[in-house]
Amino acid sequence: MFFKDIYGNTAVKHHLVRMVEDNRLSHAILFSGQEGDAKLQLAIAFAAYLNCENPHDGDACGQCPSCIQMKKLSHPELHFIFPIAGSVKKSSEPSSSDHIEEWRDFINKTDGLGTLSDWYDSIGVTTGQGIINANDCNNIIRALSYTSYQSRYKVVIIWMIERLFHAAAPKLLKILEEPPEDTLFILITEDRSAILDTILSRTQTLSIPAFTANDVSSYLKARFNIPAEEAAKFAEFSDGNAAMAVNMVLSPESNSNFFDEFIQWMRICLQADMLKILPFVDDFSKNNREKVLMFLRSSLSLLRQALYLNTTGKMSIPIPESQMATFTKFAQFVSPSNITIFNTAINQTIYRIERNGLIPLLMTNLTINLCRAFKKK
Ligand SMILES: [Zn+2]
To answer: First-to-last CA distance in the chain?
Structure first.
């Protein structure tokens, strides 16, 4: 992946190149942004640029030996750390390197736009609670201690640094404090507020903007070969989240098809009426697995929209006029504190249903969990 492969983000690309040209490159940069933006793409393209033998016009050449290895994500001085399942047994020591093949596949399949939950799915982390562990920090210290023969920079990309396990923090801090020469750490986050102050103080933050609707639309057209009008519609709906837009393209039914059923379900959750839960779930469970999954994914998106509406007073997706009043009324029950519970509970249910879990049982549990979450508002 090179800068030319990334849609939009012109200012960030220039900024990164300028830092190198002006000799202002710090040893640790935090790429802070939101789901479905270009954070990871930019980190990889920057690593390629830094090590290219013949960079020109603000990008790597794409052809030198370094660029060829970067393209395959197999450059010996490009290191990745990402959240994986925590160790169940004390004796086993899982590390990112156990999953490096899956990681390369994940980046290739999603063009580096995949979400944390997509990643968890691809490595079978069921709880939605992957961590960056201390083994990884040890491995990095070891890897960085070898002399680099062929490249100018060793680049360590730590994806979703907010998932750093507390016991691993001192090790990472130590390397950030005394960084080996010619090493660049790129920390990536979607939740800067969850990062330890001690880590923040040792990094320089670079805010990565969301894609514009035009960027997403151009990407969808090129990637899926869909008509411009359709691409524009998905781009508009996704509010700059390219990962969400891709999911919409891949799921033929759009959010709005599920709107009435979603509102009916939310009413039951808000009323916490046990007598209504079972008939709803029985009826709902007659849908096939794919339809159930699409409904749950749409529900996630509608809940996010509700929070957005509730906190900003605006909608980022066009909801039909006839449904607006109902949706606005519902939105006031979604808050920053309960949205994370909804996300986790629904994502876990999606994960289990994808692996053939029993739909009536899982939907009953989920509905009861959502009833409780609404009470916590
Ligand atoms: Zn090159």
So the answer is: 43
